[in-house]
Amino acid sequence: MGKGNFFKKNIKKRKKERKERGIKQKILEQKKKVEEKLHHVVEVVTENQNSSEPEPVVEKPVEEVKPEPVVEKPVEEVKPEPVVEKPVEEVKPEPVVEKPVEEVKPEPVVEKPVEETKVNYLIFDESIISYIMLDNRQVIEGIQKFSEKEIKFLTFDAVINFFIENERVTFNRILTFDQVVNKLKQIGDFQYYGFDEDSVVGQRANALFEAEKYIDDSDILEEKKLSKTDCILIELLIDKSVILVTNNALLKKATTQEAKERNVTVKIFDPLEL
What is the pLDDT of residues 1-58, one digit of tens each? Predict the structure, then answer.
């Protein structure tokens, strides 16, 4: 090997060693810097911990407060002033002068005469309805000329129904309720009413009917009794201010007798007796 080659190799080796030493030196320096930084951080943390510790509290001695002595002032005695009583003036009542009471005399009561009823209410039984349906002029004109006062003709539904049934059974004549009502309206101001058989008047009429108190046995072939509608008419006549229009002799007799026994006045009108 020549000298030139030897020196060349030696130079390369030295360069390599220097380079390795430089690298190691840099590593050591960096390590030192890191250790210094860590040491600095530890010091900072230690100082912060020391600064956060509370200072010891020094208790000052409490001064004892002594109360000042209370000085009592003498109480001044209050002497009441003498009460001077004034003489009471005697009040004398004034004499009461009684005024004479004026006597109140009641004024005389003037009784006004009771005006007589201006309307006559005529109530029909089935016998009168029968004459009207047959256009009996004596009956119709007698009813219409009964009074100069206003006249109203009345009956109730049971009387009309009893008449229709009697016409069917006795004469085989078929009539309707409306036919009878329309015929009765032709003679004047007519109106019919429904009757409540459970009313007080109805109960009295039923008792009178069941008693069979009035019987007409003048006819040998047939014994006549009051019908239930006859008894209702009697009780209505006694209870209300109406005039019974009938040609039924037994009904007229029974009505007159019942009114006498009960001490009441009734009015009966028979147009065939004119």
Answer: 554 555 556 677 777 878 888 788 888 887 788 677 777 765 655 565 555 444 554 4
Listed in sequence order, the DSSP H helices in 104-199 are 126-133, 137-144, 157-171, 177-185
Which 8-state DSSP code applies to residue 101? P
Domain assignments of the chain as residue spans, ordered by start: 119-273
H/E run at residue 154: strand 150-156
Query: In 3D, which of 245, 252, 254 has the Cα closest to residue 215?
Result: 254
The secondary structure element, H or E, covering residue 198 is none
pTM equals: 0.56
Superfamily of domain 119-273 in CATH is 5'-nuclease (3.40.50.1010)
Backbone dihedral angles phi then psi of residue 190, each to the nearest 5 degrees: -115, 145
Q: Taking the CB of residue 48, how many other CB atoms lie within 10 A of it? A: 9
User: Are 218 and 226 spatial neighbours (Cβ–Cβ below 8 Å)?
Assistant: no
Encoded amino acid at 164, one letter = I
Return the residue matching tokens 């009757």.
195
Q: Which amino acid is at 213?
A: K
* pLDDT tens digits along 81-110: 555 555 555 556 566 556 655 665 656 555
The Cα 152–Cα 131 span in angstroms is 18
193 three-class SS: strand
